[in-house]
Amino acid sequence: MNVSLSVRFIFACMLLSLSFTTRAALESNISLTKHNLSVSGQGDIIATSEDEICVFCHTPHGATTEPGAPLWNKALSGQSYTTYMSSSIDAELVGNQLAQPAGSSKLCLSCHDGTLAIGAVNVKAGQQNVLIDLAGIDPGGKMPAAGSLTGFTRNLSTDLSNDHPISVTYDDTLSNKDGELRVPDAQQRIPPGSGDDVAIRNHAAGVIPLLPLESTGPNGKGQVQCATCHDPHVRDTDATINNKFLRANRFQNAAPVAGNIFNENLDTICLACHDKDLGSAGWAQSAHANNLVANEQYKALAAGERDFPSDISVWEAACLNCHDTHTVSGARRLAREGTDDTNTPKQGGNSAIEETCYQCHTNSAETILSSTTNVPNIKDIFNLVRHMPITTSDQQATTEVHDIGTGSDGFEGTKRGINFVEDQNLLGKGAGNKINRHAECTDCHNPHRVIKNFLFNANAAAPDSAGTHRPGGVNGNIASGVLRGIWGVEPNYSGSSFFDLPSSYTIKQGVGSSTSVNAAHLTREYQLCFKCHSDYGYDDNNVYPTGNRPNLDDSGGSTPQGTNNLDQYTNQARDFQAPTGDKGESGGNHRSWHPVVDDTGRALGDRSIDAADNPWRPPFDAAVGTQTMHCSDCHGPDTANDTIDPNGGEDGEPWGPHGSQNDFILKGTWDGLTGGNSSDVPATDPNNGICFKCHEFQAYADRNGDNSYDSGFSGTSGGMGGGTSNNLHARHAARIGKMHCNWCHVAVPHGWKNKAFLVNLNDVGAEAGQAGIEVPIGSSAQTYDVGPYYNNAKLKIRTFRTSGNWSANSCGSSSGGGFNTGTRWMRRVCSNPP
Asked: What is the pTM of this model?
């Protein structure tokens, strides 16, 4: 042998030996792998008598002529393949549709596409076109088709749409477009300058990458092919690892570290290319990668099914919890078990993103995890009678339309995939697009960025007891950890009238630490909600009571049309506007809103309420006037009748508007009869009304409420007992014998044109399709019922007063007359209202 060649060969062997000692315990020993198809093999497919190992793939003579083929001893398939595609795969945006398999991928597919006989070789022992007899194969000698639609087969078929993309040209054009891929240099080397991790192999230049690109692209550009990640000859010396012939770690060996460095000893192979926003502390800080959070272990059956070690934890499985490079047929974005098929494991089906999440986020019987104490059970909440349209069957479209990364560079930004941004048309905006309205897990959560902290900008390395918010206080509307890194919109207003729609919206996306509402990233929960529950996500001609907005029951699981006289959704961005000029209590009337977007500026003193007689329940009894709140303080699964906190405490039912037993996905009941049904009521509402989760029930519905609680509705009571009253709610309950909220307050209490959400039937305007008319109410039985805002409404206000200065003469018909104002009017129309 040539001495120089011998030296180089020995040196190469030494390099290989050294490299294997610094990462997964790999050895190049095909005889102990499933690729040993000889009679000595230990896999499912082995020869009946053939004892040669290499002959199934290689021959020194008569090899298939294919550029770069390593003396290939098999014919190559002539099939045309359906390649992977998605709206956020920037390889398509940069290089158009992915090319057909090439290089090593074609070699692998000569067995793994199931179209050719595995034992068919070009040459064996000097004979041509030999068919070696094998056991464990299908008729025709092909890869077994059993289970080929599942994610647990290696008969990949000719449909590669559910398999990791190949023939992808990996260069800086692609990585700069994507935003979550490591950036190679001009020679396609990662790290730039060395190519130790990813590069085109060049022995002469000393470039021997861990993961070699193949020169199968245009003009010899390096592309990702099967052999970039797989070496068909290697195995892990620890048989429990089942490394799937990977050139690097299949699992995460230590918690990932924020930064742009791939650690081949510790990191899963995926992170060699996909940095997953590590430079911005994205995946590295996420709950799913955090070994202090995702420490639940797999059940033995689920681990075995996935070829995972039996004691593996979620953080160690890393990407493979939710993704599989060769996943179930029908799934999108390599989502593991991400179809609507009802089998276990799934056998094909249509894409259903939520099913990937339900692997863990379900009940203890169905979960793949051995413990679910700290894992929110979302699936059972979505199965409640009222729920977001999470399944395709709940949605008007016939297929799953949710598609991150869609939209245009000029409007939604340039890195939409990394931020999960979606085209407005897919949300329901534009003519004919309302059928696209949907809810998917990744509409509201970015699983690569969520953290288990009360606030989105908290220290993820020190997890809180939950990833959802703490209600109340001046930070009451700051987004929580589970909303970290998702996108939303901030409405911009050019007017302050209740009837003014937002003039535009600013998209909020990315990650950051600032809590400013003006930050580029999402900092408020409402910014998430508004992208669907405002005219950002649908057309709104601003006509009421019926316009072109979505109908209540357009989607499965929603509240039926006509409930509370409501047929269509109101525009939440319009309702919740909090104009600066309407803050405080400087005049008689002003706009009112629950402080979701901003605080009210109306402190206890502004409301003529003594701190000792505060009518709010904790935690909303503190910071009145400066506090803010979440949409999910009111919307979510049914809770106990004295709290908004989910049942079961911190590790009980989840926060969030996933589903509820109540209409409008509320935590309590809400209709025209919400309130007290007698003049003496218990401390908490037995009917579980939504209002009295935060407002003290006895302060509003008990005739003796004025003994313990003040109210902004106070002043002189006239003929209702004389003198002054610190709580006219209680005085009315005493005189009428019951107290229903909607007599005096609107049926959609997000925001309103009058103070304190007060109905005024002297001034019914565009909100009911009218022009500021007075509605006749002449008897106790008569009510005004026109949705969305009027339901069992009675109140007429002649003169708006500041809090604490109401009088009997403030109420009554604007047309006046001795029996149409004050207590005389009240006796006539409110003696026993419904």
From this structure: 0.93
